[in-house]
What does this fold into?
Amino acid sequence: MDLNFTKMHGAGNDFIVIEDLDEVWEFDELAVQVFCDRHFGIGADGMILVRPATEAGADFFMLYMNADGSVAEMCGNGVRCFARYLVDNGLVTGDTVAVQTLGGIKNIEILRDEYGEFEAARVDMGAPVLAAALIPTTLSGDPVVDATVSTVLGETTVTCVSMGNPHAIIWVDDADAAPVLTLGPLVETASVFPNKTNVEFAEVIDEDNIRLRVWERGVGETLACGTGACATLVAAALTGRTGRSATIELPGGELEIEWAADDHVLMTGPAEVTFEGVVRVEDDEDE
It folds into this structure.
């Protein structure tokens, strides 16, 4: 049985996108791991299934799985790629689309170039969640600002925000030198985060620019994280480090983030197609 896929990325955060409008494909954790393996599979930070919406007000449903096979509530770079897939394949012809995710419905504006082709997507990521119990974390504070997390490497200070998925932001003097690979997994799995957490290492350049590296829950360090960029801007504004909008510089590219007056966070950024392919999947009839 042939499985068609599209390989896409948003600012370097890459995904295997599979159209599953007939809901015929099911992937367990091992299958996702094999597909996302960069040596023995297609290679990606995660897998996205394009499915029919099941919630009123949504046009399509995005099921997102991390490279380790775990299901995630939401992926900011992934939802922009999802929107581009819909446009490129004629599933959306207008300039807006409502995408159902496990982190809620995301309303997306399609930005087109002078020829009417997809150029970027502006995603209404909704209001940030700042209540500790809803992030979730057992750290105290609503919001959780400059809270202490203990690890085997010592104590570190975090500010916590949920953008449909949990984030812990750590302020650093130099993002390039930040201990992403060592401290990241320790904070991700710290007991104060019952669902684990994404971990951001953020260097504030000035009030309009933040340099960011991200340790993604269930993936590892990635070239970009859309929800992480949004959470970081919110944390920076909460702590007086920036205003309510900034350019977030990630290893894979830049995202424009605004925490608007209506409390919603808007994320604008690119989505690119890398290649398309077909995988032969064996079923009982093939044996």
